[in-house]
Amino acid sequence: MYMNKKEIIVEKTKKISAILQDCGFSFSDARKMLRSKDVRVDGVAVKDDVLVCAGQTVICYFLPDILEKKVERVFEDDDCIIVFKHAGIETQGENGVEGVVKAVAVHRLDRNTEGLVVFAKNEKSEKLLKNAIKNHKIHKFYLTEVIGRLDVDKTFDAFLVKDSDKSFVKIFDRPVKNSLPISTKIKTLKAGNETSVLEVELLTGRTHQIRAHLAFLGFPIMGDGKYGKNSDNKKFGQNHQKLCCYRLKFDWVKLESLNNQTFEKLPKWRTF
């Protein structure tokens, strides 16, 4: 029987089950792979849920349909596919979504961010869709829940510096060396005493922009282990970031089926 293969370079010391869950597998899936000896650490098959250190390589083998439940098709025609990607799944450019969608991603979401992603099925649609994104003809709206009370409806501007080696970005309130300007439109949907639910529109699309910008403003996303605080995440019992690209609005993109269309899917964790 054909098996898919996934290779993971471990970034932080964790148990194998936690590493596999970060990649979209369930705990049950991880245990089954371990029992079947379908997991290798640095080339050695393992069957126990052991700790793996940063820098080690984990390889797992799994049936092609095991990740299907993590991707839902929202729209499809001859030119494109729009899917709702759940957290833990990587969008991989020309390879689509690992093990599920075989098409070209015209934009991407972080592995642990869920939401709507657009894929092109041919060279013509890829060019038109990427050009539409470049010219701000496709509008991306996100839902997120942040730590703290925030009640606003405004656009925030700042400057972002990316450290590719550390997969990390820093935000500044003024231009600095190698910085790029960012604009993030934030509208509060529900302001609570401890947390707030926001709608965020990306006016520029930089790496980790929403996560880093909100943390810079003092309102980190709940469950964000990179830009948030572990103490907050532990307090609210969240180990996955509450961030979802829930709405895509298309202006004139020269694809008849998408022109002036809006696609929306709310995450299960919404609290309003």
Task: Jot down its keywords.
Structural Genomics Hypothetical 15.5 Kd Protein In mrcA-pckA Intergenic Region, Chain A; 11-stranded mixed sheet; Alpha-Beta Plaits; alpha+beta
- Reading the helices and strands in chain order gives EEHHEEEEEEEEHEEEEEHHEE
Q: Number of folding domains?
A: 3
Q: What name goes with the CATH superfamily of the largest domain?
A: Pseudouridine synthase
CATH topology of the largest domain: Pseudouridine synthase
Number of helices: 5
Helix percent reads 10-25%
Q: What structural category arises from helix and sheet content? A: alpha+beta
Provide the CATH architecture of the largest domain: 2-Layer Sandwich
CATH class of the largest domain: Alpha Beta
Radius of gyration, in angstroms, nearest whole number: 19 Å
* Biggest pleated sheet: 11 strands, mixed
Mean pLDDT value = 89
The poorly predicted ranges are none
Distance between the termini: 45 Å
Beta content: 35-45%
Count of DSSP strands: 17
Indicate the overall shape. globular
